[in-house]
Amino acid sequence: MITAICPGSYDPVTNGHVDVIARAAGIFDRVVVGVVGQPHHKETMFSTEERIEFLRGALEHLGNVEIDVFRELVVAFAHRWDAKAIVKGLRVISDFEWEFQMNQLNRHLAPDIETVYVMASPNVSFVSSSGVKEIAAFGGDVSALVPQPVARRFKELFPDGRPGTPENPTE
């Protein structure tokens, strides 16, 4: 049995994540979706438990996918599951730059684990968790970008949206 892991914060899971995980499930015997318990690089909007529940609902149709939380190096998580591969989705060039660096570090730490990149499908190549959160916070409709339980939760959190306009980080 060849196992792959799909690590991420999934804050929240998007249809882009589901696309990559489903495609990985078609390639590998078992896919373990690794939810970062407490990311060091960002504050999460949703609790670990809520992120797991969103993933369970979005992935229940995939019989060879499991979900687990990890708080160690991604390669240690891969070893814990006896995984041979780390699957990552790529949307844009900036994703590649970051993932290239991570790949080199991971290969240094665990040369026995390969990283496999899955290009985002065109219909979800523009979807990011941060973009979805911003749209939802300002009252926009994200129902075509995320699984329905996630869209419903955003409606609960931001029933009227925030006033103002999103900030342009380049200004």
Explain how this protein is built:
- Strands 3-2-1-4-5 form a five-stranded parallel beta sheet, with helices on both faces.
- The longest helix is centred in the middle third of the chain and has 17 residues, at 93-109.
- The protein has helices at residues 15-25, 48-59, 74-80, 93-109, 129-137, 148-157; strands at residues 3-8, 30-36, 65-70, 85-90, 114-119.
- It is built from six helices and five strands; from the N terminus they run βαβαβαβαβαα.
- The model has no long low-confidence stretch (mean pLDDT 92).
- 29% of the residues are buried.
- The protein has 171 residues and is of the alpha/beta class.
- The radius of gyration is 16 Å and the shape is globular.
Give the N-terminus to C-terminus distance in angstroms: 51 Å
Order of adjacent strands in the largest pleated sheet: 3-2-1-4-5
Average pLDDT score = 92
- The SSE order reads EHEHEHEHEHH
pLDDT < 50 runs, ≥5 residues: none
User: How much helix, percentage-wise, in residues?
Assistant: 25-40%
- Beta-strand segment tally: 5
Structural class: alpha/beta
Name the shape in a single word: globular
Largest sheet: 5 strands, parallel
Radius of gyration: 16 Å
Strand-residue proportion: 15-25%
The number of helices is 6
